[in-house]
From TrEMBL:
Keyword Phosphoprotein set for record: yes
Keyword Ribonucleoprotein: no
Cross-referenced PROSITE patterns: RESPONSE_REGULATORY
SMART domains to which the protein is assigned, alphabetical: REC
Residue positions, PTM 4-aspartylphosphate: D83
InterPro entries membership: CheY-like_superfamily, Sig_transdc_resp-reg_receiver
Protein's GO biological process: phosphorelay signal transduction system
Full protein name: Response regulator receiver domain-containing protein
All copies of domain Response regulatory, residue ranges: 34-149
Amino acid sequence: MIGPVSSGNVALSFLDHLLGLRWPRRPGCFSRRRFLLADDSAAMRFLLREYLAPTGADLVLVADGRQAVEAAAAHRFDLLLLDLSMPELDGAGALAHIRAGGRPTVPAVAVTAESAPDEVAAALRAGFAALIAKPVQREKLLQTIGSLIHS
């Protein structure tokens, strides 16, 4: 039996084909969870949304660090995914503001194109629990998030 086709399913199937990837679907694995995703790249926000939408998580997407701080002040999140290199206020700066604003324990994941050992160490010192390197691999993303919110 073939299930309903949505633009998200078509996009994921196209990405599967294009990248030669096969990954298990985990529908609903993060239902009743709210994630904040901040990245200045519209393409990266689209990709993260496509990767995470099937999990059932409530996703709030913003384009910069200042918007991330505003969203975190207005809503409770179970996880933050913050790009380290955003204009105006980068991910580390946004995380510092979010922590100072009364959200000291929400797990945060740095998303970055730079994954050198010194970058990883700097992200951990800034308060990130984990780092995901771009290009983001869906299974790595799901494993990282799962380990943080189910622990």
